[in-house]
Amino acid sequence: MPLLNKIGTAAPRPTEPHLRRLRVALTVFFALDGFVFAGWVVRIPAIKEQTGASAGELGLALLAVSAGAVVTMTLTGRLCRRYGSIPTTVACAVALPLTVALPPLTGSVPALGFVLLFFGAAYGGINVAMNSAAVDLVRALRRPVMPSFHAAFSLGGMLGSGLGGLVAGHLSPTRHLLGITVVGLAVTAATAPSLLRYGTALHPDGAAPVTPTAQTPASGGGGGVRRDRRTRGLVLVFGLIALCTAYGEGAIADWGPLHLEEDLHAHPGVAAAAYSCFALAMTIGRLSGTTLLERLGGTRTVVGGGLTACAGMLLGALAPSTGLALAGFAITGLGLANIFPVAVERAGALAGPGGVAAASTLGYGGMLVGPPLIGFMADWYSLPTALTSVALLAAVAAAIGFVTRRATAG
Question: What whole-number distance in Å separates Cα of residue 87 and Cα of residue 80?
């Protein structure tokens, strides 16, 4: 795959120590994102009770998070091109912990939906900005380290959910989420100077990244237009791969425990482990993702991961026992672990922050539509049958990766 966003040849090359420090700082922001979001998720039941929302009303309010995120993702891509990915990341890292404190301050469903728009906007913004910065860093390091950042997000989410579970019985949602705000702002204040200082190592000449756009002139008459169409088409391909894998993550998070409890008659405590097994396996897979990518390359990682996830989810959905189903969820997590990071990184390498925004938006859309579609299919057929759609889309992601292997060689 050609390397885009190149620095001018006269610019000095970034030093390895600066890049290592930048990688550490950026990793902290990924972990913070997961920590803050998980802290909000574990308090949803308490806030539902506080606002007196029905299940349907809560679902509509939660859609505001997705709506805010999707709208902001496209805007953030433009902000990254204009101001740089790293300053935009810092700005969003301030907004995210501030907005997470707002939901418990509401007393009605409309007010909750309103403030969740802002929380979703901050969440979507920081995801695009961080991933855009990570794409630049991957290029500078010349190593496929993108999965390590997403592993940090997963670890932060596990820490946030675990801590939230411990304090839920002792702290009100207001105090808990306000505490997350304080922690988030403190981490941002401590880490942002390093991110801003060492971020200049990515573009030491101060030049903005050059990305292929429709406005970029190209020699050869229509060649530039053809290349631009090819770039957009490949970004769409990576976005579809991200959508297929994010669909599975959303489906397992929302429906995995219910499947174990209702279909396999597992104890509620055991059923709750469904997503934990999936998330832990995904984290382990992402921690080993760089080594996997260096040995196999991006295409084999996507194809192999998709097929692994397909087999794992068929086991998780159709297994006759709880133990086998949990094993299936874990295998699914291992398979899906590195597909989304690879898709986003490649989209960013092709089209800069705009590519990251497009792939992330499609991926987030998959996570958004997955749970409702599973619910509809469960009503039409059964929940185990509906969950096999996760396996189907994982296979689709593998097929797309295989069919486009020459155009996306790596």
Answer: 8
The predicted model scores a pTM of: 0.78
Q: What is the maximum alpha-carbon separation in the chain?
A: 68
Residues written for the chain: 410
State how far the Cα of 297 lies from the Cα of 301, in Å rounded to an integer: 6
Q: CA-CA distance, 295 to 338, in Å (whole number)?
A: 14
Residue 81, CA atoms < 13 Å, CB-side half-sphere: 19
CA distances from 344 to 211, 229, 351 (A): 15, 18, 11
Copy the structure tokens of residue 355. Answer: 């590519």
Where are the alpha helices (H) located in 322-410, listed in sequence order? 322-336, 339-380, 383-403
3-class secondary-structure state, position 205: coil
Per-residue pLDDT of the chain (410 residues; tens, 9 = 90+): 343 333 333 344 555 778 888 999 999 999 999 899 888 877 877 888 888 887 677 777 878 888 888 888 888 888 988 888 899 999 999 999 999 999 999 989 899 999 999 999 999 899 889 988 988 888 888 888 888 898 898 888 888 878 887 887 788 889 999 999 999 999 999 999 988 887 766 665 444 444 444 344 444 445 555 557 778 888 888 989 999 888 888 788 778 887 888 888 888 767 767 777 888 898 899 988 888 888 988 889 999 999 999 999 999 999 999 999 999 999 999 999 999 888 888 888 888 778 888 888 888 778 777 777 888 888 888 889 999 999 999 999 999 988 887 665 55
Run of H or E including 243:
helix 223-258
In sequence order, which ranges of 142-222 are alpha helices (DSSP H)? 146-167, 173-199
Count other Cβ atoms within 10 Å, centred on residue 32. Answer: 25
Nearest to 342 by CA among 353, 361, 356, 332: 356
Classify the C-alpha dihedral 235-76-225-5 as positive or negative: negative
User: What is the distance between the alpha carbons of residues 142 and 262, in angstroms, rounded to a whole number?
Assistant: 48
